[in-house]
Specification:
Elements (H helix, E strand, L loop, with lengths): L4 E7 L32 E6 L13 E3 L19 E6 L2 E5 L5 E5 L5 E5 L30 E8 L5 E5 L5 H8 L17 E8 L2 E7 L14 H5 L7 E7 L8 H15 L8 E6 L10 H9 L4 E4 L8 H13 L14 H8 L4 E5 L4 E5 L1 H9 L5 H13 L2 H7 L7 E4 L2 E4 L13
Parallel strand pairs: 1-3, 2-4, 9-11, 9-12, 12-13, 13-14, 16-17
Antiparallel strand pairs: 1-8, 2-7, 5-6, 5-8, 10-11, 15-16, 17-18
The protein binds guanosine-5'-triphosphate and magnesium ion.
Length: 437
């Protein structure tokens, strides 16, 4: 199985909490605050890696987390920062927000490294909060939140030329002769299951990247065979090489084969029909002396599409083919298409932090309030203390959570669940609760 599209969940590290402590020294009864800062949470990065060819390494695990920052310590010691998480992806990988499908980063061109999720900031320890009136602050800042996001990775290979053709036309045989790629070659259809990239050296200073993709069959553009996923890869290639078995040994007609492949390309993306193309008429070593295959191909497609008779077995004609491809590439503009960002996780998730959701759960007969806003509040509020509870009530009212509960149909005496806490809903009117925090 080849995976050129995977969904994973990534999470940056939470910032370490600031620490509350006081200096202890002999003969000093009450030392000053000396709680250190929490460490920063680790970031999540994507690196474009030339040695990676597929996304298959992401198939085994769904969740990828950077390390959390550690809590600060006494004696003004900072907590350790969490380790960054670096995810290596093949060049040409597009990272999308999986919900909206919007592009976060295209790991192509100049974009070789991208920090996709920043770790939470470390919280300040209580050593920072001593003032002339508050000499023994029992308060330290909690670390910044971790961020979590589901992303979809999609690989679009970046190759200059792609070999397209029916199964067993000899695509893998050709690429393994002319480049450093060594895909499997065999006499059965669909030998190649994943795209292979190879570097073709034309001369001392010229080379290009060639892609061997799994065989296409009729209906590939509509999802038949293995082809559909791989057609995506050739959208970015500059030159298409239509590889055809010119010997017609399997009882096929080479002219028809070329037409069918072209038709699949066109259906998949009409732009592909405009791409420069050449035909590699392969297996010439098997041609009977009186064969008219090459002539028929030429008269059907030249001069628009040039035909190159080759044999991947004897090597005949391969040099001419390589020069022809190289010539076309050198006449084309250099730049790779790099998609621009449509979704900035930093911004989107920051606004997400103020969100909450209210729903009625009929199974337990409770109203559930959930989301980063309440989770965060509960993280720094002690509901067991009176002050904490007063703050909580005020928060519920001011952030519109009570209104949302009312809208969802809550009535006096109903149960409301927030995280692991359950409360009885009491309509406390709109009277001001004294600001106790
Ligand atoms: N005689 C001869 N046989 C060839 C030539 N090129 C390929 N073959 C044979 O044709 C068969 C298929 O070759 P592959 O290179 O695996 O074909 P492919 O197009 O990559 O096939 P898929 O990966 O299944 O799409 C193998 O048995 C090859 O040895 C050639 O030029 N001459
Ligand atoms: Mg193959």
């Amino acid at each position: 199985m080849f995976s050129d599209k995977v969904k994973i969940i990534i999470r940056s590290g939470k910032g370490g909490d600031g620490h509350v402590s006081f200096r202890r020294e002999k003969y000093v009864p009450a030392g000053g605050p000396d709680g250190g800062d929490g460490g920063k949470g680790g970031d999540v990065w994507f690196y474009a890696d030339k040695n990676e060819n597929t996304l298959s390494s992401f198939r085994y695990m769904r969740r990828y987390s950077a390390e959390d920052g550690r809590e600060g310590q006494g004696s003004r010691k900072s907590g350790k920062s969490g380790k960054d998480l670096i995810l290596r992806v093949p060049e040409g990988t597009i990272v999308r927000d999986s919900v909206s499908g919007k592009i976060i980063a295209d790991m192509s061109g100049e974009n070789q490294k991208y920090c996709i999720l920043k770790g939470g900031k470390g919280g300040s320890g209580n050593m920072h909060f001593a003032t002339s009136t508050m000499q023994a602050p029992r308060y330290a800042k909690p670390g910044g939140d971790a961020k979590e996001l589901e992303v979809e990775l999609e690989l679009k290979l970046i190759a200059d030329a792609a070999l397209a053709g029916f199964p067993s036309a000899g695509k893998s045989s050709i690429i393994s002769r002319v480049s450093n790629a060594k895909p499997e070659v065999a006499a059965y259809h669909f030998t190649t299951l994943t795209p292979h990239l190879g570097v073709v050296k034309v001369d001392e200073d010229t080379s290009f990247v060639m892609a061997d993709i799994p065989g296409l069959i009729e209906g590939a553009a509509g999802g038949a065979g293995l082809g559909h996923d791989f057609l995506r890869h050739i959208q970015r290639t500059k030159v298409l090489v239509n590889v055809v078995d010119a010997s017609g040994l399997e009882g096929r007609d080479p002219v028809e084969d070329v037409k069918r492949i072209n038709e699949e390309l066109r259906i998949f993306d009409p732009v592909l029909a405009e791409r420069p193309m050449i035909i590699a008429a392969n297996k010439t070593d098997l041609l009977p002396p009186d064969s008219d295959s090459i002539d028929r191909l030429r008269s059907a497609f030249e001069p628009e599409i040039k035909v190159y008779p080759v044999s991947a077995v004897t090597g005949e004609g391969l040099n001419d083919l390589i020069y022809a491809i190289s010539e076309i590439i050198s006449g084309l503009p250099e730049e790779t298409v790099v998609y621009s960002q449509e979704y900035d996780p930093e911004k989107e998730l920051a606004t997400g932090a103020s969100s909450f959701n209210v729903r009625f759960d009929p199974r337990d007969d409770v109203y559930v309030v959930e989301g980063p806003l309440v989770e965060k509040m509960l993280g720094y509020t002690n509901l067991e203390s009176e002050k904490g509870f007063v703050f909580f009530q005020k928060f519920i009212r001011e952030k519109g959570i009570r209104d949302a509960l009312v809208e969802a149909g809550v009535a006096e005496g109903d149960t409301v669940r927030i995280s692991e806490y359950e409360f009885e809903y009491i309509n406390d009117g709109d009277e001001e609760v004294p600001d106790g925090v």
